[in-house]
Amino acid sequence: MNKQKILIVGGGISGLVAGVYAQLAGFDAEIYEKNHVAGGECTGWDREGFHIDNCIHWLMGTTPGTELNKIWRTSGALGDDTKILTSDSMYISELNSDRLTLWKDIDRTEREMIALSPEDEVEIRKLIADCRKSEKVQIPAYKPSELLNFRDLFKMLITMGSALSIMKAYKGQDTTDLMNKFKHPLIRCMISDFCTKESLGYSFPMAYGNFTSGDGGIPQGGSKAMALRIQKKFEGLGGKMFTGISVDKIVLNDADRAIGITLSDGRLVHGDYIVCACDTDYTFGHLVDLNRMDPVLRDVYANRKAYPVYGMFQVAFSVDSDIDCLKGEYMIDSAPVRFADWVSERMMIKNFNYEPSFAPEGKQIIQVMLGLGEEGWDYWSALYKDKEAYRLRKMEIAGNIQSMIERRFPKYVGRLKILDVWTPMTYHRYCNAYKGYNQAYTITKYSAENPYPSPFVKGIDNIVLAGQWMSPPGGLPSAAIQGKFAIQRILRKCGRKVKFD
Ligand SMILES: Cc1cc2nc3c(=O)[nH]c(=O)nc-3n(C[C@H](O)[C@H](O)[C@H](O)COP(=O)(O)OP(=O)(O)OC[C@H]3O[C@@H](n4cnc5c(N)ncnc54)[C@H](O)[C@@H]3O)c2cc1C
């Protein structure tokens, strides 16, 4: 019997993981990726002998035994020989002359926070208690919710126990409400240094709890190497990967069934099922008609206050020295380099000394991220119409950032060189990302009670959506889980049962 063919649009982490699970389930899978390298936003590139890593600061699911870890292992993202790099701190926040570190040793963090701000002691103890409770939280990654039977639901409720209790404790609150419980400005900053102010109130305790649980390591080799491992596994299982080719449209027959895809070179490729693992902003309006979008996504795109997206201005510097002034990820005030109201007042500086192969011997690479509001997209996409003006503005801001780093860390004076500068426009051009954001929309206290979009396309039975937008606020775990779920959904449509490990 001929195997059924699944065509996957997009070779980011979601599409790649979908490809591996499709092959494991006995389908013939083909992935079509517009770029020449697989990985989408989970990638990296080389400049002047340095490697710029674009993505993984923190990979949830590095702890063996969790459902998410099984996906990373099954897909080949983490192999037996993949070393997981860990750090003793999540990040360091600095304001004026005060400094706080989020240590892996949560008791130490608690002590240091109380020493910094004794008047916040009650709230600090409450927050740290919630972080400890969050250490037990696991992301459900076994099956899509509509496929869970009574036994699965019962098992999930047990593993979700602590998550549900944290969510209940923060019901109706966002990160701004959490920040406002503290008097000390640095504690408030430290919370929003990781979680946007509009995100739900439990985002910070959940994230820090995940880190102190020992999860959230970085696979050695970084983002691009991880994506290429999944591609290798996919191809090793017989899957076919086509890079450097964009999918233009999904072709339907008279009965509104998808029969294949057309490619940018004009070819038509036939398939039995299509998985759209690209940004939903591209899927609806390009691959399929906009009027097939489900009501949740319509609301997301229309109601910008309830579902914000953000952006980033990033610079990579080479450092002609091995002196490490940062010791990991460092958050500082960016007031001197702010160039508009919608630029965050904080910026992150990170060095990659944990990956000696990313820089020539005796040198380092450091990268800076400046968070942008949604207007950042309007600004950079408008400026991009004049390429020279865009380039000059990027270099001007990068130069200001360099001066600021040199002022804060005088040991870097005369040793920094700009390697590359990128904006939300970069992610839009490279990945077709909505407003150039690298994650999915944020769920806020103004979002609908059910803010999750349908993974199906109205009126077309054999298209399934994957990708981080199916599971906001996105990130690598969402992308991978939705890749696996897309194949489980297709199996249900075919009436087949395949149990994955
Ligand atoms: C700077 C940065 C730091 C990050 N840090 C972290 C982190 O520490 N931890 C974490 O969990 N996440 C992090 N993320 C987020 C993470 O990278 C994304 O959530 C994840 O990679 C999204 O995967 P995806 O497959 O859903 O989407 P994408 O990566 O966007 O993949 C979609 C793919 O579809 C392709 N495509 C689009 N249109 C077409 C078309 N018409 N035809 C063919 N192909 C098409 C795109 O080129 C792309 O490869 C970070 C992202 C960035 C940019």
Cα end-to-end separation: 26 Å
| Name of the top-level CATH class of the largest domain | Alpha Beta
Structural shape: globular
Bound molecules: flavin-adenine dinucleotide
Strand percentage:
15-25%
Number of helices: 15
Radius of gyration: 23 Å
Integer count of domains: 3
Overall pLDDT metric = 96
For the record, the CATH architecture of the largest domain stands as: 3-Layer(bba) Sandwich
- In the CATH hierarchy, the third-tier topology of the largest domain is known as FAD/NAD(P)-binding domain
How many strand elements? 20
- Structural class designation: alpha/beta
Order of strands across the main sheet:
7-6-15-16-17-14-18
> pLDDT below 50 for ≥5 consecutive residues: which ranges?
none
CATH superfamily of the largest domain: FAD/NAD(P)-binding domain
Helix proportion range = 25-40%
Q: Can you summarize the main beta sheet?
A: 7 strands, mixed
What would your notes on this structure say?
This protein is of the alpha/beta class. The chain has three domains: 5-48 and 58-78 and 223-305 and 447-494, FAD/NAD(P)-binding domain (3-Layer(bba) Sandwich), CATH 3.50.50; 87-213, no CATH class; 311-436. Helices cover 35% and strands 21% of the residues.
What can be said about this structure in brief?
This protein has 501 residues and is α/β, with parallel strands linked by helices.
Q: Topology of this structure?
A:
Blueprint: E1 5-9, H1 13-24, E2 28-33, E3 44-47, E4 50-53, H2 67-75, E5 84-85, E6 89-95, E7 98-103, H3 106-116, H4 121-134, H5 150-169, H6 175-179, H7 185-194, H8 203-212, E8 218-219, H9 222-236, E9 240-243, E10 247-252, E11 258-263, E12 268-270, E13 273-276, H10 280-283, H11 295-302, E14 311-319, E15 329-333, E16 343-351, E17 364-372, H12 375-383, H13 387-408, E18 416-422, H14 424-431, E19 456-457, E20 460-465, H15 476-494
Parallel strand pairs: 1-2, 1-13, 2-9, 6-15, 13-20
Antiparallel strand pairs: 3-4, 5-8, 6-7, 10-11, 11-12, 14-17, 14-18, 15-16, 16-17, 19-20
Helix pairs in contact: 1-9, 1-15, 3-4, 4-8
